[in-house]
Amino acid sequence: AQVRVMRHVRQTYQCPHCDGVLSTAPLPPQPIPKSNATPGTLTYLIIAKYLEGMPLYRLERQLARYGMPVPRATLANWMIQCGQLVQPLINLMRDRLVSYDIIAMDESRYQVLKEVGKKPQSQSYIWVQRGGPPDSPIILYDYDPRRSQSVPLRLLDGFKGYLQTDAYEGYGAVCRENGLISVGCLAHARRKFDEALKAQSSVDPNKLKSSLAAQALKQIQALYRIEREIKQLSAVEKYTVRQKRSVQILKELRAWLDINILVVPPRSALGKAMQYLHKQWEKLTVYTADGRLRIDNNLCENAVRPFVMGRKSWLFANSVAGANASANLYSLVETARANGHEPYAYIK
Q: What is residue 15's predicted lDDT score, i.e. its pLDDT?
């Protein structure tokens, strides 16, 4: 890394025929007026924190070693101002997001220390939305102190179409209010049967292969095998294959569930997996009705991962302004990546 001081020499001229009027050359455009942070400096900090997961106190020490001592408070203020600068672009991204009829959502905890009406130890949340046209996906992060149903109602205002989520009931209100079609996540169902199978680890391996949990997993794996085979097909072709093959497997899985759910204790690990599959059945089978839909919510959950990995390093946000700025900058970085852009070059 290199640190360079950019000097802008602004000449002042006077016209001898204009009554002594002085004219000074204007400053070149600056992201943050009256700041010594160039676009390259700001971009480096954004990438270091929001892509590489480096907290500001480490960046403060790093910059000092490079001969650029900048207080951590100044670095934080720069990030907040950058988050505000990109807000118009975030607004346009949100307009594009809700104009397409498929959105996936997920949420994760987010600790904010200085929040009105809340203790520093309390939890707030980052809400992630992934959608937009397949050839230009959009990933948006949004901070909110609550995990209530009012948040999806706010974020999805004006949206119509399919909403893919996990089984969290907080999304129910927006589906009812906006008339959305709720799409479930089969990966969650598969995970619960996998946990039930692991809970039976003391069972004879030969019997384990023929257990009810193993039977359910085998059928779910067959559905995923079809998805891998049709991954490169068009939406119309995917729909045709799913109607021909996946629907039949789902019918067999439903028949298996109706028979066995009555004989398994509902509070056991296997019983909980069956109850989840039963209650979410309609949402879990919607994906066969439209070739553009996915079998699970893994893409959106993968979009949460960069935030979770960064949180392990910087732990919390100090202020609400910092939390909002981080949401905006994460949105820009991850959307750039999803569209195949090199984030540093794009943001600079």
A: 84
